[in-house]
Amino acid sequence: MKVTLPLFLLILISLPSLGQTDSTELRKPPVLSNLPIIYDRNEVAEQLAAMEKPPLQAMPVTVEMTEADSRFGNQPALRLSVPEVNLENMERSWSRFLRKEGDGKLQREGNSLFMEDIQIEQVSQDHFDAELKFDQDSLGVITDVIISADSVTFNPETDKGIYQAMEDLLIESGKEAYREKVSDDLARERNLLDDMEREMNKLVKDNEKSHKQISDNNIAINQANIEIDQNEIELKNSSQELVRNRSAVSSAADKDARKEAKKTQNRTEKTRKKLQKDREKLFQGIIDAKREIAESEQSIVKNLEDQKDLMIRMHRQTLVIEAMREKLESIN
User: Fold this and answer.
1) 3-class SS at 55?
2) How confident is the model at residue 277 (pLDDT cuts 50, 70, 90)?
3) How many of the other CB atoms lie within 10 Å of CB of 116?
4) Which residues pair with 63 in a beta bridge?
5) Cα(230)–Cα(280) distance, integer angstroms
6) How many Å apart are CA 164 and CA 324, to the nearest integer?
7) Which residues in 137-218 belong to E strands, given as ranges?
8) What's residue 3's pLDDT?
9) How far apart (Å, rounded) are the C-alpha atoms in residues 323 and 74?
10) What's the number of CA atoms in the CB half-sphere (13 Å) around residue 179?
11) Are strands 140-149 and 73-83 parallel, antiparallel or unpaired?
12) What letter would DSSP give residue 106?
């Protein structure tokens, strides 16, 4: 069974102890990350090329002759079927249309609308009444339209011209409602792609920061090595000075001279201890910098993998948008 150690343990195991201050391995600065900032699209070119647009086909908007319950009982009606739309939007759209075209008061009862004295030149030069009954099914919205005048429903046989004109109007309005629905869906999908692009920009910026952290830590390691070299010189000098101080204490001619020599020795020892502590801090700084470099390197690896996944998702989303645009254009 493979066991994965935590990152900090791997670093500690790989680095020498602070007591090994002459270690060249510890002082050796790591190379800059050779990983890219932006994921190479060519790495997934075949995978992207194999993707296909989803089959988003527009469904037909239809009108057929039927019968429906109305204010005057079961009457001939034109049934408009618009796919994918919702009942609330259809009712609202027809309410606006009737208020614009009609002179009477719009009456609402449940999912039904009724208005008297409508004049739609596309249908008839005369005023007529219209009753619309809406129903939602699994495919979209069904609207039954009953048209009448003076409380008498038009006869499909004798009033074919009015029914044909009304059918043309319903087909036109149904397609417009369908186009609005698909257009809204298309806008939503484009917004999703915009969100993905912003996410990708953030990933790239985060990766740039990780590369900069590696660069900054390498600079810090190089500076620490320079200071360690200077520290070694000062430690060597203090060791020699301490030998002379101890000799001066041993060879002091009298008590006062010995006391003064001892003070000098104490100062040298104090300086030496400070140099040793500074040395330990410098080596600890290198350890910390290398740990941060390892963490940044891991962040870069994960970031590039996230970029790859997002790149695939963005391409797939682009195909969805293209298919939906073609679907919208096919509704005519």
Assistant:
1) coil
2) very high
3) 19
4) 80
5) 14
6) 31
7) 140-149, 152-153
8) 35
9) 42
10) 10
11) antiparallel
12) -
Going by pLDDT thresholds of 50, 70 and 90, the confidence category of residue 125 is: confident
| Tokens matching residue 32 | 């800059």
At 261, list the tokens: 């020599």
Burial class (CB in 10 A: 0-12, 13-18, 19+), 188: exposed
Burial class of 14 by CB neighbour count within 10 A (0 to 12, 13 to 18, 19+): exposed
Contact 169, 126 (CB under 8 A): no
* The one-letter amino acid at 97: F
Tens of pLDDT, residue by residue over 44-95, are: 889 999 999 999 999 999 999 999 998 888 999 999 999 999 999 999 999 9
> By 3-state DSSP, what share of the chain in percent is helix, strand and coil, each rounded to 5?
60, 15, 25
Q: Which amino acid is at 288?
A: D
Q: Which helix (H) or strand (E) holds 310?
A: helix 255-329
Measured distance CA(310)–CA(94) in Å, rounded: 42
Helices 160-250, 87-101: crossing angle, 10 deg rounding:
130
Say whether 95 sits in a helix, a strand or coil.
helix
β-pair type (73-83, 107-109)? unpaired
Residue with tokens 């484009």: 190
What gap in Å lies between CA 278 and CA 288, rounded to an integer?
Answer: 15
36 and 203 Cβ atoms separated by less than 8 Å: no
Q: Which residues pair with 107 in a beta bridge?
A: 114
Which string of b and e fits 54-69 if b means at least 16 CB within 10 Å? eebebeebebeeeebe
Q: Which residue in 177, 152, 188 sits closest to 96, CA to CA?
A: 177
Query: Which run of H or of E encompasses 85?
Result: none
Specify the residue for token string 């953030």: 202
